[in-house]
């Protein structure tokens, strides 16, 4: 799927919590499987696997769920958030309702993780039984741009990041630096530490799509840089015009 379609979905997606019990068509499921096979990682070299859950393997009110399993390496949770958000946006763009299930794992003994991996994230999905799209940014309950960044030259890009979903809607990410070199960090939180790592990956996915929409390229590196007080370094983004 074209990145522009995923980018457009950022501005109308909604977490869907009510579903029609009927399963999606085989064509819809095969289209999703094909998309997941081509999802871009944030950190190449981390082995990941998407797995569609069978009925009875996981507790959810939706007819379908997909779990992402990952090898445990530096940045593995952030990488998982980056990858799964692409799936979330794909579903929204195809009028399929979806919702992140931050703590919902497959039932023990019913769905073993692929060898060498651990469960990291779940997304449930299906035909929505409620309105699934927002009409505009005013329908999002989110922080203001100056609460998530000091890089005012990129506010037109960071609007997409501002609308990204996060656990308990905390939006833990913060973007500092300048328009060519952006330092991405997250607020310290003992209670939400693991989920906030995933959330930062979600934000970086939206950031990447927004930059591409503006004709920019971005490369990410992970050597630690100074960050604001009470924040944890996550990534450095190097931004340039597309060649």
List the helices and strands and how they pair.
Layout: H1 3-10, H2 26-36, E1 48-52, E2 64-70, H3 76-93, E3 97-100, E4 118-126, H4 145-148, H5 155-162, E5 173-177, E6 181-187, H6 193-213, E7 216-221, E8 231-241
Antiparallel strand pairs: 1-2, 2-4, 3-4, 5-6, 6-8, 7-8
User: Given the structure, what is the number of helices?
Assistant: 6
Number of domains: 2
The CATH architecture of the largest domain would be: 3-Layer(aba) Sandwich
- Spatial shape: globular
- Mean pLDDT across the residues is 95
N to C succession of SSEs: HHEEHEEHHEEHEE
Instruction: Provide the spatial order of strands within the biggest beta sheet.
Output: 1-2-4-3
Structure summary, number of beta strands: 8
Quick one: CATH class of the largest domain? Alpha Beta
Largest sheet: number of strands, sense, barrel closure = 4 strands, antiparallel
Task: Give the fraction of residues assigned to helices.
Answer: 25-40%
The CA-CA distance between the termini, in Å, is 22 Å
* Helix/sheet category: alpha+beta
The Cα radius of gyration reads: 17 Å
CATH topology call of the largest domain: NADH Oxidase
Low-confidence stretches: none
CATH homologous group name of the largest domain: NADH Oxidase
What is the strand content? 15-25%
Family: Belongs to the nitroreductase family.
Protein name: Nitroreductase
Pfam families: TM1586_NiRdase
Keywords: Oxidoreductase
């Amino acid at each position: 799927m074209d990145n522009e379609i995923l980018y457009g979905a950022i501005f109308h997606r909604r977490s869907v919590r009510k579903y029609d019990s009927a399963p999606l068509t085989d064509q819809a499921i095969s289209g999703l499987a094909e998309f997941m096979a081509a999802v871009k990682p944030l950190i190449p070299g981390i082995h990941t696997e998407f797995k569609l859950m069978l009925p009875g393997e996981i507790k959810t009110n939706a007819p379908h769920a997909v779990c992402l399993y990952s090898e445990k390496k530096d940045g593995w949770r952030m990488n998982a958030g980056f990858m799964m958000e692409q799936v979330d946006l794909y579903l929204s763009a195809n009028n399929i309702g979806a919702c992140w299930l931050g703590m919902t794992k497959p039932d023990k003994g019913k769905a073993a993780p692929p060898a060498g991996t651990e469960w990291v994230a779940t997304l449930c999905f299906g035909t929505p039984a409620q309105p699934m799209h927002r009409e505009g940014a005013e329908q999002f309950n989110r922080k203001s741009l100056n609460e998530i960044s000091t890089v005012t030259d990129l506010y037109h890009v960071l609007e997409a990041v501002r609308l990204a979903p996060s656990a308990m809607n905390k939006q833990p990410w913060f973007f500092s630096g300048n328009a060519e070199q952006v330092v991405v960090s997250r607020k310290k939180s003992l209670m939400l530490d693991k989920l906030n790592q995933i959330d930062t990956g979600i934000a970086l996915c939206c950031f990447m799509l927004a930059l591409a929409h503006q004709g920019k390229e971005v490369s990410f590196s992970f050597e630690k840089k100074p960050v604001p007080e009470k924040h944890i370094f996550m990534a450095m983004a190097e931004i340039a015009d597309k060649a």
